[in-house]
Amino acid sequence: xxxxxxxxDAFVKRxxxxxWCSVSLFGLSVLVLVVGLxxxxxxxxxxxxxxxxxxxxxxxAFLGIVGLxxxxxxxxxxxxxxxxxSLGVVSCFLCAIIDGIIAAEFIDRRPLMEGRCEFYSSxxxxxxxxxxxxxxxxxxxxxxxxxxSNTCYCCDLFHCDRVDYHVQYYEFTGVRSCxxxxxxxxxxxxxxxxxxxxxxxxxxxxAILGAFKDLVSLDSSDTNExxxxxxxx
Length: 233
What we know:
Elements: E1 3-5, H1 8-40, H2 52-68, H3 74-106, H4 110-113, E2 118-120, H5 127-130, E3 131-138, E4 141-148, E5 151-153, E6 171-173, H6 179-212, E7 215-217, H7 218-232
Parallel strand pairs: 1-7
Antiparallel strand pairs: 2-5, 3-4, 5-6
Organism: Sinocyclocheilus anshuiensis
Subcellular location: Membrane
Keywords: Membrane, Transmembrane, Transmembrane helix
């Protein structure tokens, strides 16, 4: 069912609003994707999921931009855009919770900021040099910790009496320095903030596109009727 808009100016204004929302959502989704990928590549052992919503939202926003510039196949394209944007909103909400929990509960940046963490790196790829054992004094106990090259480790977060169970990350592999972990912490919270913003902007964009997809301008309706009338003769 198509709703007829008898005012061309109102139709153009609604289309412009929907286009601006779609372009803004596309820009935000690209930013989410970039920040999420930067977070995921900071370390090798910290899983980051913040960039997945950027992929879904960017595709949905792109479909919305294309659909708003179509005339004949506008409605199917906008319906597909709304579906992908809705999926992106759900993924933004879930990934914001996951990354927020990782940043708040599993990463303690206090030893990092106070310089109580150490960084081990080796230029040799031999097993004896690639892996090394360090002595850690934690909670009145002394033990050995095996770390590999390019690892930032914090003995303050390593429990010698609970070797197999750790609440927080005590080592970060695949880093160039311990400062990369601080950058990871900040990027995680940036991902959380961007994903929360993506939830609200995605809901607004989906609502505007949903209201616009069944709207037909009076000029285009008259043009279609004229074409159909001319085709009969």
